[in-house]
Amino acid sequence: xxxxxxxxxxxxxxxxxxxxxxxxxxxxxxxxxxxxxxxxxxxxxxxxxxxxxxxxxxxxxxxxxxxxxxxxxxxxxxxxxxxxxxxxxxxxxxxxxxxxxxxxxxxxxxxxxxxxxxxxxxxxxxxxxxxxxxxxxxxxxxxxxxxxxxxxxxxxxxxxx
Length: 161
Hints:
Elements: H1 4-7, H2 11-23, E1 28-33, H3 40-50, E2 55-61, H4 63-70, H5 79-87, E3 94-98, H6 104-110, E4 114-118, H7 127-134, E5 138-142, H8 150-160
Parallel strand pairs: 1-2, 1-4, 2-3, 4-5
């Protein structure tokens, strides 16, 4: 198993790694999220995503992006630690931190064959779905596991604290 820190790459470096993988016929899968307080629902989505291809890339929202999306009290875990935890999972091949609020620019650069999104979405409603479909990629929605969410965990911790 590769050391987790070796799996965390910048976008430009990752593009080169993915070109090499694709030259051998590998199918690249991408998913993304904040992954603040990593929980079983996250892991289940990542495992499902990995089954869609040969290499799984996880896009991770930067700390600044998480604050803009989730509010000033988030993230609870800094991006370096979130990246390390996600990269430590055997099903994850690469992690890339992105500063934007959506993964659109990262997807444009990486051009994954499959984009997996966990949640109650429809492929046609995802802004990044249009980008994926524009080059012949596929969007897959992984169902949410009821009762598992970082927001729910955070709320429970605050109530017990």
